[in-house]
User: Fold Nitrogenase molybdenum-iron protein alpha chain from Ruminiclostridium hungatei.
Amino acid sequence: MDYIREKAPPVREDRLKACNAFGGSCCELNRIGKKGCLNGVKRTFAQTQGCQLNLSLAILNTIRNAVIVVHAPIGCGGSSLSTAGISKNFQKLRDPNAKGLIWLNTNLDDNDVVGGGEEKLRSAVLYAESEFRPEAIIVVNSCVPAIIGDDIDSILNDLQKQISAKIVPIHCEGFKTKIMASAYDSVYHGILRNLLDKPEDTRKEIYEDELEILKEKYRKSRTVNILNVSSMSRQDEEELTRLVKALGLEVRIYPCYASADDFAYVDDAALNVSICATHDDYFVEHIKEKYGIPFVLRSIPIGIKNTDQWILDIAKFFGLEENAKRLVEAEAKELREALEPFKEQLKGKRVFLGGGEIRILSTAELLQSMGMEVVGLKGYHYDHFAEPLLELVENSENIIFNVATGQPFEQANLLKRLEPDLYVGHTGTNGYTAKQGFPIYPLFGQSSIYMGYLGAYEIVRRIARVLKNPIFNRNFIGNSRLPYRDEWYGQNPFTYIDDSAAL
Ligand code: SF4
Assistant:
């Protein structure tokens, strides 16, 4: 894979042939997906959804010592308000002096649509440099400048000669893709093109000492980059670090909450370890291409099976399989004993999960191992990275899979039919799902732990607590409603998915 010479990465509809519209069983999805027939499926009616600019900001807003310039009308990026506090607190967990999110918007208006927004972009970047002196100024391009033809790359190239901060253009215009996860590629593309060069002369003295050279080589040969995601908590990171360090390895964490200058040292590691292929394949493939650093990309460490696999994959690279086997056996044994008391309560409870394909499938596997019945899944998109996880899910011929970014009307219809005992969902969907009276458990949260063995225990413990007394959510029935006519609930939930051009 080598797209780095291009100004912008391809969208995932093209690069991964990803699908964003499907309704059927897990089995059918697996079968049709393998044939490569899902890419052209369309909706004849669609509700709005998040765009790749907004998802790009979820990562970019975490980066320390950077200023984010959103080149857009004022509404784009408005969702950053909801993450500003989280970003600041989590940055401070890494660096007590961190300033938190600093974010400017060029506030494009009607006049700029006619006359161009280039001057506003220029002055925003110069203001960011003079006012904040950041390590990087990250310029996020939106639909409007892309449509009116602002040449942001030429402007930013020109500005780079005048200022010391590294300028990072991110091409994440929302209209270009229906697969929000294209955002991850846009962000990594900007980082790969602009933040990897090392400053000259750094650590020159270290490299002049032979012993230090050997020490440095050894440290590097035992160092793992764990690639985090913005939906992870600090506890998730600590749990994964605990497990990898138990193998005698060093850990560094990228990209979320790293400082902009830290990316120059991303190659000082022996292995890149992803926790989610949806997030990282673009980055790890390019780093392998550029520096020859191999990667682990197979599984997400959620649930016992997937956590075991994640650790064993890392250990295999370093020849530490025996140590890893002992570690996972001991951890999994302790966890199974701790989970046993919850089984009676959870057995047979019906659950529906909605969110990113990798998270919902791994969480489903954990809940099935507790005796719960998975009745439906809604994935934001689907691509080949989900196939191995889909195969871990039991009873897949009877589980409905809806591929839909957003599209709450399809989910509302499905939930009405399936009547699950519990909904496990992505941020942003839980509110409207609660209005249907279903008990809710969030699929992730930045103040709880979900990953590794400790995370598996916490997921189960908290779900058991939610199910113990769901009366608060049940009381919504009859007191609130979603904005759909009753006739909609009588129709096929996948009425508006048109697969005639694809299958
Ligand atoms: S779709 Fe375009 S206009 Fe809408 S928020 Fe995203 S970048 Fe802005």
About this structure: The radius of gyration is 23 Å. The CA atoms of residues 368 and 394 lie 8 Å apart. The chain has 22 helices and 16 strands.
